[in-house]
């Protein structure tokens, strides 16, 4: 084990999480005195901003994911493992199947969707965070049209063709736009009994407008564009209950029960379990989303060698709003932490407190429509979409993916086709349990259908 | 329901299965007096000959699959349903959730891997028939390297780096070649503790040579090429047992136990359950692989309106060997059956008995190596690979896929990269049960590892 002996003298950095924060931290540490290990449960980095494209059949999972080993080849050791706890005094990360010693620790384990105490809704109304979520949602969306095609009962068909998206943030808007595009254009010719463009897509947002992190004029543009695509927008409305076959919406005092088979959840996020463990181990303060309150240099108070980056960090510049959970924030924080650690190693003075260089905020609405808040100007429509396309391609981690995604998009744009429309996972026990209610309903209805349709 | 009334007068053709046989039958029936319905459990056609590329991370599932509704848009109704039985006297196909009346029936439900009575091996040694199989195998292959990287125990590392492929037919050869390529070139730089090129890939074939359906000189070329890629070839050897952590091989009287964590099964096929149901319903003769013995016009004796095509059909021309289960056979049979049915409708005389136009047989061995038996000549090496590439791209069902696959291949060829190296499905109950033994082993070993590696 000679090489191991030689590395004992190095400063061990453990990075938890291969998302934007962790990946950009690991890539930015180039000092040879550092021995960097990145731990993730998955073997790939996921370009989450494009996950909604997988969920709506526009891109394949491999288009938006790249193996971490590939991305970090010479820079860091990659370990496929599950982090279960932290022993900060002993400077160890505890894994489900072992442990990892560290001198400096960077935790960037991201976030998950927040069901606000209704975790039982999760199986009925999946969120969109992982590749599996995306293929599950894709299967549900496509299956809903198939079931609608098979039933002869008008009420049931309407239920299958009703799609409710909870949450009018960027993910909700993007899903609603892409789903409208899928139903109105891509699949228009595919069915016999139904017209997919009859699909009712209902976007539900608790606050008074969509995209509340954007300026009001862009929210209004977004709502207009979605309405032109046939999306029904219900602002000021809460999802009060999600039950099999129906959803209860609440607007002020009025509540309304909507029959619907497909509900998607994009309303609010919270940190994952790892954040809670770390907060406990460090005695750190957390906010109501579970984010860890960090110092201006992204360390945890009292633990100068423990850093938090990305969605897990609560950092409010000059007493303002905490930074949002966006990919650029996580990237810049990852790079900043790498800089802090490297300067400590080289004995250079620490960098100034972390400052987020906010170059703007964008959301895509559908084919050739987007909104972009670049602070010095607001852009919408086709120019915003072009800008969005350009920036996302630029950031896509691997050159090959970038090229393939570009071609796939160009093709989709010209033909309105979506080639990745596969219903996978069926026949395996995995998603079957979750899809149980869909399939049972389908069965009952299809028996009725077969007697009537030729 | 006016359109349904009008269609009542039409001749109803039900096609069971959206593989090559069913798809080509449905596409070839253009007579407007026919009402064609294609039934499949999945919503996509799968280009099975390239499935091994998905299993080894070279292509994404969506690259080799296309939505059936898209492929058949104007030609046939597509029904997503599971066929459970046939009522031939009542001219009905019985679905899990309904039934379908027919005037003519085409059954082309394909085949599955044959474990020759050892179905308990299935979870330990998965076959390669579906998209889920391919992503499961991809996850197992990639996880094995990850586990080898983590263990400090030499024997265990060796076990994780030992890959046994049962069956030296085209699928086994293709998997072995692609896996060798993945280990020796693609992942060479990706690990720290292990050298992936140390992986032992053992291809086990019961008969005396690989690719027994090819001429002997091409078998010899194949074996040479695989050996140069580092594959160990064990002909005249049977898999006697598959157990957790080991495989028992038997050569003549000698038996040998090989520690190995990853076993893939490509040895022999048999028909799926639907074939048995149809044979019983029709009182038809089957061979030992479960294939239904058909008349020269691909009907079942005594049932002139029931056709069988593709892997499910046993048709032996002039008392020779039955036609092999290859994509071109299925395609030609599908088209032939369509012709028979159309001629009956138009009152034209039936076509001559089905004749398979055998344009040759190919197998790919690895990067830039293949063998092709074109009957009038034998080709191997790079020219055969180019021919293989050309023909497979030509047949890929959708133009978009063809272009994307071509680019992905060109890229892989130049860089030896494989971008679709994702371990997915983890964290879901589905494949977790099947992967249980892998993960348990991993856990035990990694605890040991963490104490020793820095």
Question: What would you say this structure looks like, in words?
Answer:
Two copies of one chain form a homodimer. Chain A has 454 residues and is α/β, with parallel strands linked by helices. The first copy, chain A, folds into two domains: 150 residues, FAD/NAD(P)-binding domain; 228 residues, FAD/NAD(P)-binding domain, CATH 3.50.50.100. The longest helix of chain A has 24 residues. The radius of gyration of chain A is 23 Å and the shape is globular.
Helical content class of chain A: 25-40%
Structural category of chain A is alpha/beta
Strand order of the largest sheet of chain A: 5-2-1-9-21-20
Q: How many strand elements of chain A?
A: 25
CATH architecture of the largest domain in chain A, by name, is 3-Layer(bba) Sandwich
CATH-derived topology of the largest domain in chain A: FAD/NAD(P)-binding domain
Rounded Rg of chain A: 23 Å
Mean pLDDT of chain A: 86
């Amino acid at each position: 084990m000679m090489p191991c002996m030689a590395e004992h003298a190095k400063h061990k950095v453990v990075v938890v999480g291969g998302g934007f924060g962790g990946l950009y931290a690991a890539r930015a540490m180039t000092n040879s005195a550092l021995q960097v290990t990145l731990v993730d449960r998955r073997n790939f980095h996921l370009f989450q901003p494009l996950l909604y494209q997988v969920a709506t059949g526009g891109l394949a999972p491999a288009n938006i994911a790249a193996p971490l080993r590939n991305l970090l080849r010479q820079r860091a050791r990659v370990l496929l493992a599950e982090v279960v706890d932290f022993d900060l005094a002993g400077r160890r990360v505890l894994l489900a199947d072992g442990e990892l010693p560290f001198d400096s620790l960077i935790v960037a384990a991201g976030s998950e969707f927040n069901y606000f105490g209704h975790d039982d809704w999760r199986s009925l109304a999946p969120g969109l965070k992982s590749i599996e979520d995306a293929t599950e949602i894709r299967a549900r969306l496509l299956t809903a049209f198939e079931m609608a095609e098979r039933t002869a009962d008008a009420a049931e068909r309407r239920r299958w063709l009703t799609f409710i998206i909870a949450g009018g943030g960027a993910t909700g808007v993007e899903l609603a736009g892409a789903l409208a595009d899928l139903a109105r254009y891509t699949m228009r010719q595919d069915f016999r009994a139904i017209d997919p463009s009859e699909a009712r897509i209902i976007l539900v947002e608790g606050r008074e407008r969509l995209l509340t992190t954007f300026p009001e004029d862009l929210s209004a543009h977004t709502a207009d564009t979605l309405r032109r695509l046939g999306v029904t927008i219900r602002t000021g409305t809460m999802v009060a209950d999600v039950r099999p076959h129906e959803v209860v919406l609440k607007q002020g005092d009025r509540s309304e029960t909507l029959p619907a088979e497909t509900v998607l959840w994009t309303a609010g996020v919270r940190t994952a379990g790892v954040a809670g463990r770390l907060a406990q181990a460090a005695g750190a303060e957390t906010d109501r989303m579970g984010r860890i309150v960090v110092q201006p240099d992204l360390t945890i108070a009292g633990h100068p060698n423990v850093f938090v980056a990305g969605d897990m960090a609560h950092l409010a510049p000059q007493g303002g709003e905490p930074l949002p959970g966006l990919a650029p924030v996580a990237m810049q924080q990852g790079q900043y932490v790498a800089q802090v650690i490297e300067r400590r190693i080289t004995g250079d003075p620490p960098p100034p407190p972390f400052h987020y260089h906010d170059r703007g905020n964008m959301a895509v609405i559908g084919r050739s429509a987007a909104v972009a808040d670049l602070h010095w100007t607001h852009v919408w429509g086709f120019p915003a979409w072009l800008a969005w396309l350009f920036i996302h391609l630029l950031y896509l981690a691997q050159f090959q993916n970038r090229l393939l995604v570009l071609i796939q998009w160009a093709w989709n744009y010209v033909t309105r086709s979506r080639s990745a429309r596969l219903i996978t996972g069926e026949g395996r026990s995995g998603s079957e349990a979750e899809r149980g209610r869909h399939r049972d309903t389908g069965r009952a209805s299809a028996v009725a259908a077969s007697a009537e349709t030729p």
